[in-house]
Amino acid sequence: MDAISTLWKLDTLESANDYLTSHGSNAPRLQHFIDGSFGRHSEPVEWIEPLNPRSGKLLVQIPSGTVTDVDRAVDAASIAFLTWSKTSRQERSQVLMRISDILSEKKELFAVWESIDQGKTLARARVEVERAISNFRYFATYILHEEGAVRYVDGQPSTLTYEHRSPVGVFGLISPWNMPLYLLTWKIAPCLAFGCTGVAKPSEVTSITAFLLGEVFRQAKLPAGVMNLVFGDGPGTGSALVKSSRVRGVSFTGGTSTGIRIRQDTVADIGKHLSLELGGKNPALVFDDVDLTKAVPLAARAAFENSGQICLCGSRIYVQRAVYGKFLPALVEYTQNHYKLGETMGPVVSREHYLKIRGYLVQAREENAFFHMGDVPNEEPQQGFWIAPTVLSNLPTSSRVMREEIFGPVVTVWPFDTEEEAIALANDNPNGLAGIVMTNDLARMRRVGERIDAGLVWVNSWLVRELGTGFGGMKASGTGREGGVHSRDVFTNLRTLHVSHF
Ligand SMILES: NC(=O)C1=CN([C@@H]2O[C@H](COP(=O)(O)OP(=O)(O)OC[C@H]3O[C@@H](n4cnc5c(N)ncnc54)[C@H](O)[C@@H]3O)[C@@H](O)[C@H]2O)C=CC1
Ligand SMILES: O=C(O)/C=C/C=C(\O)C(=O)O
Question: Is the CB of 305 under 6 A from ligand 2?
């Protein structure tokens, strides 16, 4: 039986895990989804073998898409663009709704595999699958309600002017491993809604739910070639996709260095649309007027949700000195009670990532950090990639641990005295993705919130999302915004018309 028929039926953790235990070294082999069907890979196939984050054992085999595979997918998307770009909004909307309905019927299947593949808890995976469903529903309805204005050119009443938008073309959609389906569908849904076609490349570390999504596209009767899925690594498959001259836009979420690489690889292709959502090292400011029974759980969640593997995590906590002494032990106690490895917290995604995080913890130890909880994990991961939630203090603000995105369950805590100092500390970082402000002072909420160098600022909240508002970062955290009208700008070209008569 092929991999899709096998995996599609395993929609409980028990059945999926039984299957994984029984397959031994015959791990299922995923297939690219090109031109409406799962199929051939160009020979010889090089297989990438991601491991199960909970056990460290072989999970699946991913074909490493070659330039030929990418070209076939781009061919299919280019041909499909000719009709999909002219398909009515009503019809596109209906296809997106069918996709969301099938996803919704199979949501437990997707949650189970997301949890296994990425290591996240099943509860977290369920939240993310709901969001993937919303991504399709949101853009399916958005396109039905867009408004445009036609007006006279000022002083020339015989000339009308209006803005006309058309889909850009074939897009390369490249996503990371931390929220695989959630982030991939955040790109696929607007791409389809606004009349573009695409080639999506999920992370080679977590490709399973993207593979299952191909079956959803098939069942939803998404016309062949409109969305293709090519698996493979970044330097080979991803790079070939980004560099293809027939790919007219790239929407990417991932590490900052990869974003820089993609900018370099596309710099000569001036007209290519580029949307880059990159890393964060996000500050969380805790002022002394807050109720700690609310601030501590919020800070812990922002630090440790998905084992700290969300680009929006608040990984640098700054606490006003008057409450610092109470906040720190309360954070440790809350985390100990609520983030238990193997129960309410999963492993990190891969061996490579485990070693990367460990490297930062070794450095923290060398720099005499206080480990209020957590420790440097073993040099070699044992039975999965488990790293305990770690709370650090007493690091110099110049430390790499304080400045670079660790993307794991590691948070640093540091005191401040004044509001000005808090803002300066928050902004003293090359990244500018998100910021969190905790205060009960209404004036301060805006005063501080509006000065944080970040594309997203949450006040007394975190990860609250409204899909119509702009999502993306400042400074090294990216280029452009997505969400609502911003996604429309990514996936469409704008021409302004001036219509007069002789
Ligand atoms: N959303 C975020 O902020 C994320 C940040 N990261 C950060 O980046 C670090 C590295 O993680 P990686 O998995 O290596 O992220 P990455 O940025 O290499 O991977 C993200 C996606 O980009 C693709 N990719 C890699 N190189 C490419 C290239 N030259 N051209 C086109 N596509 C390419 C990958 O195959 C994957 O699909 C992490 O440790 C973390 O700090 C990682 C994932 C998500
Ligand atoms: O859109 C969201 O709600 C969350 C997005 C998270 C990322 O982009 C990330 O962690 O990379």
Answer: no
